[in-house]
Each structure stands twice: as structure tokens, then as C-alpha cells.
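Hi team,

As requested, here is the filled-out complex form for the magnesium ion run. I kept the field names the same as last time so the parser does not choke. Let me know if anything looks off before we queue the next batch.

— J.
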Amino acid sequence: MDRVIEVHDITKIYQMGEVEVRALRGVSFHIDRGEVVAIMGPSGSGKSTLMNMLGCLDRPTAGEYYLDGELVSSLTDDQLAVIRNKKVGFVFQSFNLLSRISALANVELPLRYAGVTGNRRDLARDALEAVGLGDRVTHRPTELSGGQQQRVAVARAIINNPSIIMADEPTGNLDSKVGQEIMDLLLLLNKERGTTLIIVTHDPTIAAQTGRVIRLLDGSLEKEGSGKQARKNSKAWKEAEAKVANKSTRKARAK
Ligand code: ADP
Ligand code: MG
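And here is what came back:
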């Protein structure tokens, strides 16, 4: 099958002054095109960090990430932004819409960033129709219900025809009935367009509707050897340790 995502041994270490936070510790997996995957795990286990890597918002400290067959883990920020704009649609827990502009203008934004000229308006209108909001295009977010706002966010996420939709707790701010309607919508888009769907969720009812659950615990995949020894033997782990050690030495010398 066609692999849309391949991560090899990705490690993320945040440097907070003198303190290192090991957020991901050698994570490897792949996701096939058209899959629906849930990412679960306790608070602080690395879910958002992983989403940021997969969504090209950030780079791993070590390890490789291939998106659509392209090695993206070593791109510059600008290159990463281009890939992100083309290939990733984001849906957030708190919708993240601009409140002063219409639903239509919100949905159009990614097209503006991508430099699309011409029929932006029509494309945005089509996307709003696809999420069942064809009759709300001129409304501002404050004039819409939570469920409707999340539909606008979904329309914004699909406007560039992305390879993947990344949804971070998309139903977290909605009651269970409306949350299920959003889940139904995401699953419908996956079915109709074949868009790969990755959903971070705490809700077992949502996770049960996906094809697979990736579970994180303390920065490692729960099932695959998350023991300390396995981490220490990992190539990426050693690389990451070496990088951090180098930086600390340089800093110490500078002082
Ligand atoms: P989750 O989304 O599963 O709650 P996160 O990925 O947000 O977990 O966080 C994983 C770990 O990395 C936590 O210990 C968190 O405090 C830390 N962390 C996350 N983002 C940053 C950051 N920007 N700088 C420093 N530490 C961070
Ligand atoms: Mg999080």
C-alpha cells in the first residue's frame, strides 16, 4: 500500500535553559494513504509534539520523517511551511478561526497563503457546502454555534486538498452529539476523498471509530519496546544525546 507517512526513530528534545525535556524517544511507525488513526496517551506523553512533527510545524531533534515519500525532517522552516500549506489540513480543539471575518474569508485563508489567485471564493464556497454550511458563508464565527464553527475549521482544513488532516482533540470543546456530527463529517471526507485522518483524542468513543490507535507513553510507543534499554540502543537516541551534549559543551565554553 501507499505510505503517506513514515517516521523512523524520531526523537524530540526540548531545551529549556539548562533543562532538557525528552518529549519523543525514538518513535517509529507508518501510516497508509486513506487510513484513519487515533493518537492517544496521557497528558504529557508527547501527543502534541508528535502532531507538530507530523504536521510540519516543527522538526525532530533526530530521526527521519517522510511525508508523501519526501524527507521533510531536514527541511528549513520556509520549506517546511510550503509543504505544510500544501499537504496538511489542521483542525484544533478550539476551532482557531479569525473572529472578525466571515466563514468564507476564513476558509479562503490557506489559499491566500498558498498564493492561489482567481477562483478562491468559489473554492471556499464549495468547501463550506461540503461541510453542510452553504447557507452560512457570510456569518462570522461569533454568529455560529460551536459545531458550526468546527465545520468552518474543517472546510478550511480541506480547501487545499491536503494529503493528511490532523485533528487535535476536534471534539473536545463540543457536547457528545455535536462532537459525533463532526466525527461523522471527518469520516465522510476520509471516505469520499481518501484523505488520511489523524486524530488526537482522549475519547474512547472517538478512538473506537478509527482503524488504528497509536498509543504514546512517556514519549515512546506504548506497545513497541519502550524500555529504557531499547531507547538507549536506538541510533536516533544516541544522535540526539550527542547533539545536546555538543550544545551544552559549546555553551559552557562560551561562558
Ligand atoms: P501531550 O500533548 O501528550 O500532553 P506534549 O507533546 O504537549 O504532550 O508534551 C510532551 C512533553 O514535552 C511534556 O513534558 C511537555 O512539558 C514538554 N513540552 C512540550 N512542548 C514543549 C516546548 N515547546 N518546550 C519545552 N517542553 C515542551
Ligand atoms: Mg497535547
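Two things worth flagging: The first strand starts at residue 3 and ends at 16. The CA atoms of residues 62 and 239 lie 6 Å apart.

Thanks,
J.
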